[in-house]
Amino acid sequence: MKKQNENGENKFYPAASEQTSCTASAKMINKAKKDGAETAFDRVASLKSCSFGSGGTCCRICSMGPCRVTETRTGVCGATTSTVAARNFVRMIAAGAAAHSDHAREVIFTFIAAAKGEVPGYEIKDDTKLHALAKTFDINVEGKDKNQIALELGERALAEMSKQQGEITLVKQAPKKRQERWREEGISPRGVDREIVETMHRTHMGVDQDYKNILLHGCRASLADGWGGSMLATELQDIMFGTPIPIRAKVNLGVLKEDEVNIIVHGHEPLLSEMIVAATRDPELVEQAKEAGAKGINLAGICCTANEILMRKGIPVAGNFLQQELAICTGAVDAMVVDVQCIMQSLPTVAQCYHTEIITTSSKGKILGATHMEFDHHNAIETAKNIVKRAIKNYPKRRKVDIPKEEIELVAGFSHETINYMLGGRFRASYRPLNDNIINGRIKGVVGVVGCNNPRVKHDYVHTTLVKELIANNILVLVTGCAAISCAKEGLLIPEAAELAGAGLREVCEAVGIPPVLHCGSCVDNSRILVAVSEIVKEGGLGEDISEIPAAGCAPEWMSEKAVAIGQYFVSSGAVVGFGVSFPTANSEIISDYLFKEIEETTGGKWFYEPDPVKMAKILIENIDKRRKALGIDREKERVLYDMEMRRELEIV
């Protein structure tokens, strides 16, 4: 497709079908072009990435630069490619950890206020998980009501964020052998605030200039996120909003309604979106919508906010990261409400072509051209109702509406607790059936497929192609974030998808009644996968550490710094992790070799890079096979029929 750019030059843009494997998205990409709305799919075609920046060897931390360093040319200060690439990589970890952990901090503040009874609409819902987490923090619960326990837990959680000495409490959730390894290597994490500050200091000009030392601290900072900030956010959200259980809902742009007020929530923190769910069900506001000519109010989500309200409330999902502009292009979105992370600045510009009002709600995330309605947990219900009223008022301003028909069912909400329950029931909850089926080979291993979308690769295609390849080879897949939404749109998050799995995995899925691809939540909920793999270790029979079990992870369409933090905390916890699209240290052979090979000696995990989804699946399976062989479960054991004499020789232990 030929199109003139702003300089009047003719540029060729790929067809929409080459940019995405999602039919609904392709329709909206074409519609956006006709409507004169520029989207990320247009911009990526006209913008070349900087090879020095994408490969990690552009240094701009002082005014002597920026310096583009190579293996034969250092920066002005003498910094080599290994120093520059290590600094840039670890700064990405710090930024990603900061995003997750600042999310956690907001949750903790609200949690404390809920325990004090100061915030209408918020309460402690999961008493069982409250008591379990209180026990982990060594909080005495005798004679205390749930709000007293929650207050003490919230205050302890807040102190964890800035802990200066010693280990954060939740590392106790990891296998003992893993904890010992972290201590031996000096990377057991303190408070995430301290680790992030130290990262920024170490990577300042003229401080740490030993790449191994820099990367070692990167491990520590990432662990403070995975086993600290992210895990606290997940655990406290579950206690306050309810621990997810399997729930059916629908996904893709077809969930928008032509005859209803459509509100989309987009971002990552569920604090306001939970209240918007309640507001859209308020009879008075529903009546106002009908008075405006609509049949009702329809709420849908984009990105990780979508995952949060999906798995707890069954709210439909309009799409993932690269569909945020495309949802507006339907002409049916009356308000898009955003908070933090993964929100494109282009939204108000795209909205100008339609009638959609973009509403920002966080003091940390304002956008020029958007309406700002500040959210505070003390006035959450009032803010939510005012947002819904604005959307209703906007409904009559609609122009032509064109909503793709594509929508499909999914099943979400597979928390660690749910998996435990489904495998063993209320009284025998256990990972034993999972471990047994990994040992006997019906399930070859477990892979976490996580992360964002990236318009530099075909939208959704890499995720879904990879996942299909994995389940066909009897790999149980756990998904979070935008990867989960990609798989849902492909019909992989329903039990019927077991038909695409290998014989062994299919048999297990049909027996338990689960899909071969389990939705585990938003990107902050990758901590659920950490807990799950730790439980596999604790259950026994598959080694004593995460680095021994047949499990791996990948982010095949990654784009944000959060993905680097997530990937590194899995590597630091003993997992093999793959990236697609690009790798942030590609221009430094020394750093890449260290992350792809040598780091395994320190952490038991390592990175790899492979942009092709089929080849990535092959590498993941090869690493799982390697671990199965080390455990001695790589081949089916011969069945031995005991005669009477052999039985007499058996000893009872």
Description:
The protein has 653 residues and is α/β, with parallel strands linked by helices. Among the domains are: 81-241, Substrate Binding Domain Of Dnak, Chain:A, Domain 2 (Up-down Bundle), CATH 1.20.1270; 247-397, Rossmann fold (3-Layer(aba) Sandwich). The chain is built from 26 helices and 18 strands. The strands form five sheets. A six-stranded parallel beta sheet has the order 8-7-6-9-10-11. Strands 15-14-13-16-17-18 form a six-stranded parallel beta sheet, sandwiched between helices. Strands 1-2 form a two-stranded antiparallel sheet. Helix 5 runs antiparallel to helix 7 and helix 11 packs across helix 13 (303-313). The protein starts with a strand and ends with a helix. The model is unreliable at 4-10 (pLDDT under 50).
